[in-house]
Amino acid sequence: MIKFARIAVLGLALATGPLLAQDEGGGGEMIVVTGQRMSNSLSRVPIAVSPIGGGAVALDRRPVVGLRRTADNAVRHVEIRSDSREEDMRRSEVQAMLLAALDRAEREGVSLVTGTLEITVVTKANWKNLFPGLAGTAPKVDDEDEDDDEDEGGRVAPGFEDDGSTATLRLMVRTKLSGSIADAQGKIGKFVKSVPATGRSEMVMTGAMALTIINPEQYRDEIYRRVAKAAQHAASFYGEGYGIEIAGLDRDIAWEQVSNTEVFLYIPYGFLVKK
Question: Are 165 and 235 found together in one domain?
Answer without folding.
Answer: no
